């Protein structure tokens, strides 16, 4: 393990260790701790350990030990607190010791749960990877029955039915690894995870870049539409001059010079609505009429 520690990337790395309960996540982490040799390269966050500690503390606070039961309300409250602290921990890991690897062990059975962690890594420029451990439901239930605090069978069955294994996000697919713990022992899984970590790269934060691209694209579109509107207004102006010919007592050149500034002012005032107006030529004519441009021209003349 020490050999691998020397070659790990300098960028902080976040690895999600996922799977339904009793797929072997805790066993794998125990093997990791044994082979880690006491170094600080690996940091581990486990939801199960956090929740069990809360149950033990609650049980010690009771006058008589009545046993520990699954409380859905308490579970949800503790889960929210843990998730909140986890986000802070990830940010700290990303800005802390160079080369630190934070392994977050939890079910993460929905894509949205894993994507939340991915976005945090994207925000801080950390390396992200997700490892999903799998086994058949029967094996999971058998392993769960041997736990000190077993999870209700219905919870595991429902989680197994809802588990979303395939990431929908293209970038997350590049950082996805699945391991069958019935086919691979802990050492084999650990070796494959280490190889997987070596292949990962930091998540690029493209949010600002995309925002800039949208702004530039919008500006380009507006300029293009403004140009089209200008051509349409020139045709409208020519038609208007022709209809006013002989009525105003002024030459066409003088009328055109007076119409020019009004045309430019109209385009400037309505730049944000240009795209809608271009779609329907009649809307341009209606807008011109609403602003009484022909009447204003006649007043100036």
Decide which structural class fits the backbone.
Answer: alpha/beta
The percent range for strand residues is: 5-15%
How are helices and strands ordered from N to C? Answer: HEHEHHEHEHHHEHHHHHH
**Mean pLDDT, all residues:** 75
Contiguous runs where pLDDT drops below 50 for at least 5 residues:
1-8, 63-67, 290-301
Helix run count: 14
Strand order of the largest sheet: 2-3-1-4-5
Describe the global form: elongated
Helix content: 55-70%
Please characterize this protein's 3D structure:
Helices cover about 60% and strands about 10% of the residues. It is built from 14 helices and five strands. It has helices at about 1-5, 25-35, 45-60, 70-95, 110-125, 135-145, 155-160, 170-175, 185-200, 205-245, 250-270, 275-280, 280-290, 295-300, and strands spanning about 15-20, 40-45, 100-105, 125-135, 175-180. The protein starts with a helix and ends with a helix.
List strands and helices in order, with pairings.
Elements: H1 2-7, E1 13-18, H2 25-35, E2 42-46, H3 47-60, H4 72-95, E3 101-105, H5 111-124, E4 127-134, H6 137-145, H7 153-162, H8 170-173, E5 176-180, H9 186-199, H10 207-244, H11 252-269, H12 274-279, H13 281-290, H14 293-300
Brief summary:
With 301 residues, this protein is of the alpha/beta class.
């Amino acid at each position: 393990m020490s050999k691998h520690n020397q070659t790990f990337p300098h960028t902080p790395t976040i690895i999600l260790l996922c799977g339904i309960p009793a797929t072997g996540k805790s066993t794998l982490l125990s093997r990791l701790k044994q082979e880690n040799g006491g170094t600080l390269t690996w940091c581990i966050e486990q939801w199960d350990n956090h929740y069990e500690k809360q149950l033990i503390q609650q049980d010690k606070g009771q006058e008589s030990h009545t046993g520990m039961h699954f409380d859905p309300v308490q579970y949800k409250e503790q889960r929210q607190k843990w998730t909140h602290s986890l986000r802070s921990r990830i940010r700290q890991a990303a800005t802390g010791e160079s080369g630190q690897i934070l392994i977050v062990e939890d079910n993460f059975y929905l894509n949205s749960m894993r994507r939340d962690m991915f976005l945090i890594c994207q925000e801080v420029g950390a390396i992200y990877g997700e490892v999903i451990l799998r086994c058949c439901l029967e094996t999971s239930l058998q392993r769960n029955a041997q736990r000190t605090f077993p999870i209700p069978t219905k919870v595991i069955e429902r989680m197994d039915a809802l588990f979303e294994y395939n990431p929908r996000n293209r970038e997350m697919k590049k950082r996805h690894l699945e391991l069958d713990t019935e086919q691979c022992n802990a050492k084999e899984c650990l070796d494959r995870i280490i190889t997987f970590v070596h292949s990962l790269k930091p998540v690029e934060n493209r949010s600002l870049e995309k925002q800039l691209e949208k702004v530039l694209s919008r500006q380009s579109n507006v300029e293009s539409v403004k140009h089209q509107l200008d051509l349409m207004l020139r045709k409208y102006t020519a038609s208007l001059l022709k209809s006013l010919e002989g009525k105003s007592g002024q030459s066409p050149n003088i009328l055109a010079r007076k119409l020019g500034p009004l045309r430019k002012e109209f385009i400037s005032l309505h730049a944000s609505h240009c795209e809608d107006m271009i779609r329907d030529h009649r809307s341009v004519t209606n807008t011109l009429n609403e602003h009484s441009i022909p009447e204003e021209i006649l007043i100036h003349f």
